[in-house]
Design a protein that fits this description.
The structure is a single chain. By secondary structure, this protein is mainly alpha-helical. The chain contains 9 helices and no strands. The longest helix has 32 residues. The radius of gyration is 21 Å and the shape is globular. The protein starts with a helix and ends with a helix.
Length: 185
């Protein structure tokens, strides 16, 4: 979508679809015991399908089958446990997959989520938010999220890479910092 007007219309349509599929939940909603919204998969297709012709989407053939299967499985899970929240399961799985996967696409996604796009530096604030979101949605403590990631090869590589990138940037900035410090004396 190169046209700004068309992009704005697309953004508005997605927000409307999200409102249908992910209704907002007041903080500390007693029904859920969490702030995580309940995904309404029965409304997912209803919300997304009108966007396909309007914005000329091409959906893979398996999309509808997968969405129906998830909706069916969610219905079965909710009949056994009315508090079941598919979003909590999917989100925590996705975060674990980000750290475990060796796929270049997943590595890029993790980097996009945790590095500042303008500076290329590790963004520790974004990392903390990702961990906090994963903890809130999965109902697991933040330190457990970090520990689980640290136990994976992908998580270890990511942590060492982020620390290495930070150290390189600090090392490059050191002469400039020392020069500025000398100017203050």
């Amino acid at each position: 979508l190169d046209d700004p007007t068309e992009f704005a219309a697309f953004e508005k349509a997605l927000l409307n679809a999200a409102d249908l599929v992910l209704p907002s939940v007041p903080e500390g909603d007693a029904r859920l015991g969490t702030r995580v919204p309940q995904v309404q998969f029965d409304k997912l297709l209803e919300a997304l399908l009108p966007l396909v012709p309007r914005f000329k989407f091409t959906l893979p053939p398996y999309f509808l089958n997968n969405a129906r299967a998830i909706g069916t499985l969610e219905g079965l899970a909710k009949s056994a446990d009315p508090s079941f929240n598919v979003l909590a399961v999917v989100y925590s799985f996705a975060v674990r997959a980000l750290f475990k996967s060796r796929s270049p696409g997943m590595r890029k996604t993790l980097r996009d989520l945790t590095y500042d796009k303008e500076t290329g530096k590790p963004d520790w604030g974004r990392m903390r938010l990702l961990i906090a979101d994963a903890a809130m949605i999965s109902g697991v403590r933040k330190r457990r999220i970090v520990w689980d990631a640290a136990l994976t090869v992908g998580g270890q590589k990511f942590a060492w890479g982020a620390l290495r990138d930070q150290a390189r940037r600090k090392r490059r900035a050191l002469p400039k910092d020392l020069k500025q410090l000398g100017a203050l004396s």
